[in-house]
Protein: Bola protein family transcriptional regulator
Organism: Halococcus hamelinensis 100A6
Amino acid sequence: MDTSEVERLIEDGIEDAEATVRGARAVEDDHLAATVVSPAFEGETLVAQHQMVYDALGEHMTTDIHALELQTYTPEEYDE
């Protein structure tokens, strides 16, 4: 799955999200790393933030993406 498509799915699925997706250090194309910044993460636990990303990716997490290294931030956290 193309990294720009993963970014689009995340940004479409999470309000005001900005996603940057790249291939992870592993050589497989289905291993990705993502940084996602959204005010929707405000007040949510890290687990809940990650679940929001997984929900945005839906079935792609089991069919197209084997592994996802994930970092999530509120805009304030990211600016620090």
Observations:
- The beta strands are 18-23, 31-37, 67-73.
- Residues 12 and 56 are 8 Å apart (CA to CA).
